[in-house]
Design a protein that fits this description.
Elements: E1 11-19, H1 25-34, E2 47-56, E3 59-68, H2 75-78, E4 87-93, H3 97-101, H4 103-113, E5 119-125, H5 137-146, E6 150-153, H6 162-186, H7 202-205
Length: about 210
């Protein structure tokens, strides 16, 4: 494979991982970006982020993923990091009903602070702990359907569905961006080259005439 310069990409997507404290957000990020899992992972203080580059439809996509602290005392700080985000993994712990009960609160926060066309994927983490399950899949699926989101269960411990979760979200974001780019070409506003959509680029923030089905 021909090596590319670190800035040689077609699109840059910002994602956030949100949910209550201790649902496994940091390990989900670590498993996806470094294929690592830390049983003694400490609670995130403020915000951390990592990046990963993938290819979709022949386009190189660099994803910047922000891991936000779940504790209430960090919410005022973390809300600023929604700016420019085009995707969110809304996570809960399948063994703790309270973390699922908080999902609606988190979704409301996303709608208040993030881009209006953001794609949100509902993620039930720690599915390796089936014997401790407290949240029924049917309940999560019903909530996701009601709010026009896709739903998946993952395990950062054994890597179940981690890649699929991020791939699903990336593909749906790409579809929206591609549709918007194609529309602008038809309208005669094509920039002439495959554009890089960065966090501070107005094109990345421009609402599109299409609902996200992710």
């Amino acid at each position: 494979m021909t090596s590319k310069h670190s800035d040689d990409y077609d699109f840059l997507f910002k994602m956030v991982i949100i949910g209550d404290s201790s649902v496994g957000k940091s390990n989900i990020l670590s498993r996806y970006t470094k294929n690592e899992f830390n049983l003694e992972s400490k609670t995130t203080i403020g915000v951390e982020f990592a990046t990963k580059t993938t290819v979709t439809d022949g386009k190189t996509i660099k994803t910047q993923i922000w891991d936000t602290a779940g504790q209430e005392r960090f919410r005022a700080v973390a809300s600023a990091y929604y700016k420019g985000a085009v995707g969110a993994l809304l996570c809960y712990d399948i063994t703790k009903q309270s973390t699922f009960d908080s999902v609606e609160k988190w979704l409301k926060e996303v709608k208040e602070h993030a881009e209006p066309n953001i794609c949100v994927l509902l993620v039930g983490n720690k599915c390796d702990l089936q014997h401790l399950r407290a949240v029924k899949q049917e309940d999560a699926m019903a909530f996701a359907e009601k709010n026009n989101m896709a739903f998946i269960e993952t395990s950062a411990l054994d890597a179940t569905n981690i890649e699929i979760a991020f791939q699903t979200l990336t593909n749906e974001i790409y579809k929206i961006v591609s549709a918007d780019t194609s529309r602008r070409k038809v309208d005669g506003t094509d920039l002439g080259k495959s554009e890089k959509i960065k966090l501070d680029d107005n094109n990345a923030k421009k609402p599109v005439d299409r609902k996200c089905n992710c």
